[in-house]
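Title: Prediction job returns without error message
Component: structure pipeline
Severity: low
Priority: P3
Assignee: unassigned

Description:
Job completed but the reporter wants confirmation the result is attached to the right record. Sequence as submitted:
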Amino acid sequence: MVTILQKNSRFTFLILFLFLVSCSDNIEFSKYESLPNASWEANKNVSFKFEITDTISSKDLFINIRNNRNYAYSNLFVITELDFPNGTKIIDTLQYEMTDNFGKFLGKGFTDIKENKLFYKENKVFPLNGEYEFKVHQAMRKNGDLKVIPFLEGVQDVGFSIEKTE
């Protein structure tokens, strides 16, 4: 009986230790928005508002994408907008690889859902205190086509996160 309790307490300790180690003190902001029917509508912004009080420390900013096997492309084009408290806007068009050279989805995950943590800005120092807003929308087109794909199938969630740099 004692050995069973010892094994259970060791197992409980191991689980608790792994939980504590996996938690990160570096994350300052993290939020996801689920997309209806795992489909990202063209030109429809996913927005995240966040407060900045530290104008000294640098931070890494990430776009987080959860896609499933219905995502039919090897890359992802997005247009981002970062709105500052004083009205300044920074707009970027970005491309990310979503598969390797063999067509296997990149990202983490054991199931059909993969999570990609994509760099947006590295070592960013926010110059102003106050509320910022980050907006992102998909800008995918088929090869040779000028029109944006109206509904980008296979994108389940779009997220945004801010982490302290190490």
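Comment from assignee: result matches the submitted record. The chain has one helix and ten strands.
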